Amino acid sequence: MIHRAAILAVGSELLTPSRIDTNSLAITEQLDRLGIAVACKAVVGDDRDELAAAVRTALGRVDLLVCCGGLGPTDDDLTREVVASVMGKPLSEDARIVSRIEARFAARGIAMPAINRRQAMVPQGASVLDNANGTAPGLWIEDGAHCVLLLPGPPRELKPMLASCVESFLAPRASGVSLQRRVVRITNRTESQTDETLQPLYARWARQAVPVAATILASLGQIELHVSARAASRTDAQRAVDEAAREIGEVLGDDVFSLDGRLLEEVVGDLLVTGGFRIAVAESCTGGLLTSRLTDIAGSSRYVECGVVAYANAAKVSLLGVSESLIAVEGAVSEPVAVAMAEGVRKGAGVEVGIGVTGIAGPGGGSATKPVGTVAVAVAIPGETGSRTFRFVGDREQVKYQASQAALDMTRRMLLARPRS
After folding, report:
1. How many domains are contained in the chain?
2. With bands split at pLDDT 50, 70 and 90, how would you rate the model's confidence at 421?
3. Which of 293, 344, 380, 399 is a Cys-bridge partner for 361, taking CB atoms 3.0 to 4.6 Å apart?
């Protein structure tokens, strides 16, 4: 039975800033569904000794090792050879694989290069996993208490192969324990505040018949709480995480914006649809980021009317109807100007909800009274306009993102608090 797994992403390119390992996320998702806990993940370069050490360490800790990458035909594709060596399994050429690779090249009018024969080398006793989207077959290897799954690196090759492997090899060997997860997203609180408030829940969850574990993560403009539970029954595990999420919502109130992993822009979009509202956005320092986030959601044409990037003061005047004298008196970065922007874009677009954002993203442009990171946000909804000034910390990109997050959260809170007719 397989209870614990390790994942090795193989490739020196994954150790550079230009390439990120995403395969381990897809693998973890599949293993989670089977109740197989991922104990560790690692990225290993194309180095024989380093890879061998990583494979040995993983096999000493877990029941299943999943390696992705390093199955190509070139000299730096070492995964197949190294794993076979560590497991003491000699390699031999599989003529059927050679024929499939030759046919794949022939279909393109090309003769198979001799180096591709390396991809036909199979460890003794291994099962070959066909690759419909590439030349590198996958391999399933069993050795006593250990199972090893070798998958190609390109996601379009890995994902379908993994899906078929789940049914044929993994599901029959899974422990039968169901692992269920839930992501709760929180705003307007720090990580330490959130953790301190929820400590009594953690202690009680640990003593339950179906224990619930929680991991807290801080990111720009929000806190994520990942809750998980394991049980023999999927229903019992799901019920435990659902109840945990409900309790978090009760304790933290409106600071919880999502109990089901939805992003803030999704939540705002759902509220707009529920209220039958359309929205228009006027942005200065965020430069279109807020509108982009709203329109990243499929179906957002139901509620997004338009976005105006009025970066210069003259654009605020000509496009949004902001008074020149208001800018002169209050300054472009001020709540009165943000209000004028929100109300101007709302009126101009003929919609129910308008947002105005103006600020100093940096690194220059700040002053003693309005330092870099100062952002004024205003939201206008039917019957009410609200505004607030924020002081964000971080570089230009971070300030812009936090400003967009604050604008979305203000909109969410105002729509939630709006009296229902």
Report:
1. 3
2. low
3. 399
